[in-house]
Amino acid sequence: GAVVSQHPSRVICKSGTSVKIECRSLDFQATTMFWYRQFPKQSLMLMATSNEGSKATYEQGVEKDKFLINHASLTLSTLTVTSAHPEDSSFYICSAKGSGRAWEQFFGPGTRLTVL
Amino acid sequence: SQQGEEDPQALSIQEGENATMNCSYKTSINNLQWYRQNSGRGLVHLILIRSNEREKHSGRLRVTLDTSKKSSSLLITASRAADTASYFCATDDTGGFKTIFGAGTRLFVKA
User: Fold this and answer.
1) Which among A34, A49, A110 has CB closest to B42?
2) Which one of B41, B48, B96 has the shortest CB-CB distance to A109?
3) B106 part of contact set with chain A, CB < 8 Å
4) Which residues of A touch B40 (CB under 8 A)?
5) Rounded to an integer, what distance in angstroms lies between the CA atom of residue A24 and that of residue A78?
6) What is the pLDDT of residues B33-92, one digit of tens each?
């Protein structure tokens, strides 16, 4: 299957700093990328959907100024957590869909963010 | 937003036993998928069942779908310790644009 990578896999930062997480599709062009967050022992909550070259669509309750998403190319989307606070500590997972089967999406390995 | 609930939230069984997990959802769907997640890792796609299908098999996995009850079940037969993970159902909205996950079942298989 197709491969999606995330970088970094783990990041620890101080409160008030911004953190950028990258999501890359390695062997296919991702027309759509999704960002999820997952708290311990909970499910994945969709944060936003991004299409290459256009603004991201955020789910209700997700602050777009807090979680900046850029999908500048067909293989890269970034999520920037601005002015991070301890409550932003979570596991962030991206996924990507290509131009193949509509239902098929490939998940990255996730990024563990810890804000001190 | 989450699409539905999964039942049970946690399940502990002995190796060799069967594990059954249930999922309910709220809206009309095109398909339903089951994923597996090992602790602190990404998701692995297990199986997809379309809205016009009632049952599907893949190896030791058996999935059923009842669209009238808006529910699905995942059966893992002859479980192994390596099956220990969290299992999530996920549905695509009727636009087929985004995938919404259920709450998940944490399965622990004791060797």
Assistant:
1) A110
2) B41
3) yes
4) 91, 110, 112
5) 9
6) 999 999 888 899 999 999 999 999 999 999 999 999 999 999 999 999 999 999 999 998
pLDDT tens-digit map of A57-67:
999 999 999 99
Facing residues of A69 across strands?
A: A79
Residue type, A63: E
Query: What secondary structure does DSSP assign to chain B, as a single string?
Result: ----EEE-SEEEEETTS-EEEEEE--S--SEEEEEEE-TTS-EEEEEEEETT-SEEEETTEEEEEETTTTEEEEEE-S--GGG-EEEEEEEE-TTS--EEE---EEEEEE-
Residue B8, number of CB atoms within 10 A of its CB = 13
For chain A, where are the E strands, in sequence order?
A: 4-7, 10-13, 19-25, 32-38, 44-51, 57-58, 67-73, 76-81, 90-97, 106-107, 111-115
